[in-house]
Amino acid sequence: MQVPAQVEYEKATSVEHALALLSRYAPGARILAGGHSLIPMMKLRLAQPEVLIDINAITALRYIEPAGGELRIGALARHADLLADSVTGAHFAILHDAERVIADPVVRHWGTIGGSLCQADPSEDLSAAFAALKGSMIIHGPDGSREVSARAFHTGPYQTVVGPDEMLTEIRLPIRLDGGSAYMKVARRIGDWPIGAAGAAVWLTDDGDRIADVGIGLTAVGATHFVAAEAEEFLRGRPASEETFARAGEIAAEHCRPGSDQRGPADYKQHLVRELTARVLRLAVSRARGQAS
Amino acid sequence: MKITVTVNGTDYARVVEPRLLLIHFLRDELRLTGSHWGCDTSNCGACVVWLDETPVKSCTVLAVMVDGRRVTTVEGLPRGGVLDPVQEAFAACHGLQCGFCTPGMIMTARWLLDQNPDPSPGEVREAISGQVCRCTGYENIVRSVLWAAKHHDRAGGDGA
Hints:
Chain A is an alpha+beta fold. Helix content of chain A is 35%, strand content 26%. Chain A has 3 domains: 8-52, Uridine Diphospho-n-acetylenolpyruvylglucosamine Reductase, domain 2; 62-174, Uridine Diphospho-n-acetylenolpyruvylglucosamine Reductase, domain 3 (2-Layer Sandwich); 179-288, Enolase-like, domain 1, CATH 3.30.390.
């Protein structure tokens, strides 16, 4: 029987209230959102907070809305909300691709976007997707709010730039035209963490022939900040062709550092990176050209 | 701390430890043992109940988190002593063998049919993909849910 250790519990009713509670109890406090990562960690004593600050009552943090040329996602939006949102689907196919393979439908009802990001599991899918989309995170603290690039949000496995008296409140994604995106994951079974996964966001030149800008995110394969930076650098300005996609896959595989574990050996994971990177680029370009859904 | 929860339409006030999981609150405090406590890791889905209107895995929710909210368990599905069509379907189609996964399967299936009254076999499989059955190979579970969709007017309840 797995039960968490003794813990105190506070229910926050607003962001300000949550921040006040964090200030009072930090560093022994943890924000509790969906709890689908934190509660299992507490059962295993991998996390042992002294105080839980439940933010589920802050309904103002549960939203997905376009504003100012961006899509803004409240930290308390559930995975199921993102998967059901049509604006997300229209502009960011990569997010619907990823959400379809995150955990299972029942877990997606309760798990939150902000919680997934703050858990910072190296195998978590959205971190790579948001890195590919070059999004940013809004973090609130005692001195106000700050905006951090999705590519600077994670500082290591299970570590982020969010301080002990701060909380993530929003994710922002720039809505850019002429783009397409995709995410693909290989897992041992439905709902499992990936053996390896890749996501790409591609923006084409006006003639549709060349890659104007690109973001590539990699999950669970030891990519720094979940990004395939060298492959992105190679792709900029090149023709959107099969040869280019294949070479980008090779570069991405060369520069990631997966470990061997129960999900597979490192060389197999690098093979996945090579193949999945090429595939997501192909699909993202095809979506950018309006040829695939 | 003291919590008040509406379970299957009845209000319950209890004093609980913050670390108490919802599944243990339901089974041990309220003696509603229809919901099963399975893997403890939010993988198997035997503990699925509804929190307000959506299915959740109650081994990964704290009882204090549902203070002031509504919970529905498999005991809450029959109306006036008449089984919900999904419950009837699992009997009619042999949708269970050992029965351990059944309460969770039924709660998710009922939710699916409320959202999508005429699902395809693929949609049924997708809906229950976070739930494990070690007996049936899922064939008869899928068959049961499809049977319930066809016979939604069989039971007297308003669940269909």
